Amino acid sequence: MSKTIGIIGAGPAGICAARRCYEAGYKDIKVFEQASDLGGIWLYSPEINGYSSMYEKLNTNGPKEFMSYEGFPVPDRDGSGRSFISRQDVFEYVKEFAAPIRQFIWIYLLYKEEPGKPKLQLPSNVVQLREVIDADSEGLILNDGQKLNDIDAVIYCTGYRYNFPFFDDSIVRTLEGGKIVTPLFEHVVHRDYLDSLFFIGIPLYSIFALLEEYQVKFALSLIQNRAKLPSRDEIDNWETNRIKELKARNLSLKFFHAFKEPHEQWDYYKRLAQYADVIYAVPNVYIKIDLMNRKFFDERVCTFKRVIYKIVNDEEFTWHDSEMDDYD
Ligand SMILES: Cc1cc2nc3c(=O)[nH]c(=O)nc-3n(C[C@H](O)[C@H](O)[C@H](O)COP(=O)(O)OP(=O)(O)OC[C@H]3O[C@@H](n4cnc5c(N)ncnc54)[C@H](O)[C@@H]3O)c2cc1C
């Protein structure tokens, strides 16, 4: 496993990519993050930073029962059993998921220290660098002229704002006022760099941990050259077909990367598992809870987060309303 993996963005998607690549045997992993720490939007600061739309009292909009990385259930941190956990709990959870590999990967913080802000105390595998302004066939170029070479695969994990400052338009660009990232196959891989350029976390209306797990499984199968891909024509026509499909459903192109109907995200994970030639391991009970949660959202938007779900087995769950009312 001599490939070097470059991951841009250390939110839940970048962390998932880093951990799963590490577990798959890649030991040379470099993560580039513009903020002062890992965590993505869940690294909350009351200062408006122009990036995150997180707010202080946010509770998740999906229940923790299915918002977990594989084999790493979200803990009941305050013992309340609540399903819709706080942003702090998600932040802790994501950081705990990163903890086993944190000391084994390189973390490059592209964070600008400003007068008055405390200086970061960094361990030896965390390096503070200037921001990435460009990329070429050998690697990434920083704004002080430094070059970081020898990256074989780039995994782009920068959240929902589709903005690619270091890619020339001839490589990656956005269409429809930033709603479509092109040219991709299945929202995740660049169709001209099928073994080396990936975008984790683009689709909207999905459950972050599941989306990231299945996209990373697919990316890894491509890096390892064992994916079961459709024909070249199907890959090249995927975007055109997706646009035709949206038009046939009378949906605007702003839904290009969105799973509008509930079944779309589950079908998507199943397809990615097939391409990656791995087991699709989403239990039916997740789908049932998701449907119930959407129904409650429609029927009782102000109180749907009071519901506490309990998974009984892969098919069944129970639910009841909690007495607590501190949900946003
Ligand atoms: C308010 C809010 C509430 C949400 N609630 C839920 C929920 O309850 N359940 C759910 O499943 N999902 C929820 N989401 C979706 C959310 O996007 C995911 O939870 C998850 O954070 C996505 O992870 P990510 O790593 O793709 O993106 P992010 O969390 O956005 O992380 C992206 C990271 O990339 C870094 N980055 C960006 N650009 C660059 C660059 N050029 N160079 C270096 N680093 C860069 C950022 O600093 C950030 O750390 C919510 C989103 C929002 C905005």
Automatic annotation (TrEMBL):
Keyword Oxidoreductase listed: yes
Among SUPFAM superfamilies, the record links this protein to:
FAD/NAD(P)-binding domain
GO-annotated molecular function: flavin adenine dinucleotide binding; N,N-dimethylaniline monooxygenase activity; NADP binding
Q: Name one Pfam family in it.
A: FMO-like
Its keywords, alphabetically, are: FAD, Flavoprotein, Monooxygenase, NADP, Oxidoreductase
Q: Give the EC number(s) listed in the UniProt record.
A: 1.-.-.-
Q: Does the keyword section mention Oxidoreductase?
A: yes
| EC class of the enzyme, as a word | oxidoreductase
Against InterPro entries, the record matches this protein to: FAD/NAD-bd_sf, Flavin_mOase, Flavin_mOase-like, FMO-like
Q: Which cofactor does it need?
A: FAD
For this chain, the family text in UniProt reads: Belongs to the FMO family.
Protein name, per record: Flavin-containing monooxygenase
Q: Which organism is it from?
A: Acrobeloides nanus
